[in-house]
Design brief:
Helices cover 39% and strands 22% of the residues. By secondary structure, the protein is an alpha/beta fold. The protein folds into 2 domains: 2-243 and 447-472, 3-Layer(aba) Sandwich (Aldehyde Dehydrogenase, Chain A, domain 1); 247-431, Aldehyde Dehydrogenase, Chain A, domain 2. It has a 7-stranded mixed beta sheet, sandwiched between helices. A 6-stranded mixed beta sheet has the order 9-8-7-10-11-21, sandwiched between helices. Helix 7 packs parallel to helix 8 (222-233). The radius of gyration is 23 Å and the shape is globular. 53% of the residues are buried. The structure holds nicotinamide-adenine-dinucleotide (NAD). The site of nicotinamide-adenine-dinucleotide has 28 residues, from helix 7 and helix 8.
Length: 474
């Protein structure tokens, strides 16, 4: 762990395993609540100086961290593949995406402008300034174990906040590597602190109840996010919540079904389906159902599952046995209730894969409302295809979910594209585009997919308080 500028070890440790091989790849310090207290104290002590530093000073450190991250891209990506499982090419992309946040917020930190507002009174002036919210507690998931950290750390530090971060128990080695970079970049002691732990409950409780923590930023499941937001409400702490999703992927019959199916195969199986913006319901207009399924199945049949360090493999393992069991349950339930299974549909546990958590990339069609997969987030390599007939029908069905993170629309018709963009209740909408994400663009969900946005100007605003000055000059 990294507390107050020092690396801390503990007698107790927990093992970190490679989900592709079951091999133990490292031991991590087992923190407890007292470490969280110390880290929050360190962050609170570092706050006055850090928040009083100039944006130019903070930007220089973030820029240095960006350069260091780019320089160690290959080794970070290899570590990520071993710890999290995604294929090396995807890991390299993630490190680039993670570094993008450091650069973008280094630049944006210099643009926290205030405002003057005309008053109705001749003797009054209004001035608005933005100031850092204070100590931030951050909790991050395992599926994007480097970029989800910089997406929080970069704007928080740019704004002048100090941070205590707890990464997911499955991927603490990637988190440690990020903090080594921050240390090398010259971040002062106490400004960013890392706590690792195998059971997060006590640390989460300390984050929510310690009055020195002014904001909690969380990325993870809706179930846990809801709990944290409830706990944080007792002290009316600010919260940002990046939670689960159940993205619809809508293909209208004026779209090229082959192009759309290629897009679906890329985004659905990205990170083995373990992405919050992964399509969970693929709605295809009936007229083009056959060519769409044909292309998707051909592409999925060509995918190889295995260790992500081998460039022949584009499907990595799932994070653990529970994730495999969940996918298996959803697929079996769909097939029992009448879905057609085109490929996959089973665990992969032969030969080299026997000690990993693999499930075959799967395509189901004739999926309907009665099946678990229609409502539950899958977080696995299963493409669930649902036929539809009309525009009104598909928009209503797409919006019929408690989630509201990402949605995708394929159409050649500009009016259909614009109408769907406006009608879909999701925070991120890809129109003929499977990657509507960037450090410069606001990322976040509506409804039970979360509160607040990360990336972009909005991402910085999440770490700033608005202060109004009313000046009487009478
Ligand atoms: P999770 O909710 O199980 O865990 C997320 C984090 O919360 C981990 O660090 C975990 O240790 C911690 N945690 C769990 N219980 C806690 C508690 N009681 N107190 C404090 N911390 C606790 O989620 P996960 O399985 O790691 O991640 C997958 C989920 O994250 C999916 O639902 C996915 O959609 C979502 N996700 C969302 C986004 C987004 O930007 N919206 C991005 C990535 C992942």
């Amino acid at each position: 762990m990294f507390i107050n500028g020092r690396w801390i070890t503990t007698q107790n440790t927990f093992a970190v395993t490679n989900p592709a091989t079951g091999e133990v790849i490292g031991q991590m310090a087992e923190g407890d609540r007292s470490h969280a207290v110390d880290a929050i104290e360190a962050a609170a002590t570092a706050l006055p100086d850090w928040s009083a530093s100039t944006a130019y000073q903070r930007a220089a450190i973030l820029l240095k961290a960006h350069q260091l991250m780019i320089a160690s891209k290959q080794s970070l990506a290899e570590l990520m593949t071993r710890e999290q499982g995604k294929p090396l090419k995807a890991a390299l992309n993630e490190v680039q995406y993670a570094a993008d946040f450091l650069l973008w917020f280094a630049e944006e930190s210099k643009r926290v402008y205030g405002e003057t507002i005309p008053s109705a009174r001749a003797d009054q002036r209004f001035i608005v300034r933005y100031q850092p919210v204070g100590v931030v507690a951050a909790i991050t998931p395992w599926n994007y174990p480097i970029s989800m950290l910089t997406r929080k750390l970069a704007p928080a530090l740019a704004a002048g906040c100090t941070v205590v971060l707890k990464p997911a128990e499955a991927t603490p080695l990637c988190a440690k590597a990020v903090f080594e970079i921050l240390e090398q970049a010259g971040l002062p002691a106490g400004v960013a602190n890392l706590i690792t732990v195998s059971d997060p409950t006590d640390i989460g409780h300390e984050f929510c109840t310690n009055p020195k923590v002014k904001k909690i930023t969380f990325t993870g499941s809706t179930a846990v996010g809801r709990k944290i937001a409830q706990q944080a409400a007792a002290q009316v702490k600010r919260v940002s919540m990046e939670l689960g999703g159940h993205a619809p992927f809508i293909v209208f019959d004026d779209a090229d079904p082959v192009h759309a199916a290629k897009g679906a195969s890329l985004v659905k199986f990205l990170n083995t389906g373990q992405a919050c913006i992964s399509p969970n319901r693929i709605f295809v207009q009936r007229k083009i159902l056959e060519p769409f399924i044909h292309t998707l199945v051909a592409r999925v049949n060509a995918m190889n599952a295995g260790n992500g360090l081998d460039p022949a493999n584009s499907i990595g393992p799932l994070v653990n046995e529970a994730a495999v069991a969940k996918v298996e349950r959803q697929v079996n339930d769909a097939v029992d209730k009448g879905a057609a299974l085109h490929c996959g549909g089973q665990r992969l546990n032969q030969g080299d894969l026997s000690n990993g958590h693999f499930y075959a990339p799967t395509v189901l069609s004739s999926v309907d409302e009665d099946m678990l997969i229609y409502r539950e987030e899958t977080f696995g390599p299963v493409a669930a295809i649902i036929p539809f007939d009309t525009y009104d029908e598909v928009i209503e069905r797409a919006n019929d979910t408690n989630y509201g993170l990402a949605a995708y629309v394929y159409t050649q018709n500009l009016s259909t594209a614009m109408r769907a963009f406006e009608a879909l209740n999701f925070g991120i909408i890809g129109i003929n585009d499977i990657n509507p994400t960037s450090a410069a663009a606001p990322f976040g969900g509506m409804n039970e997919s979360g509160l607040g946005r990360e990336g972009a100007r909005e991402g910085l605003q999440e770490y700033l308080e608005t202060k109004l000055g009313g000046f009487s000059i009478a």
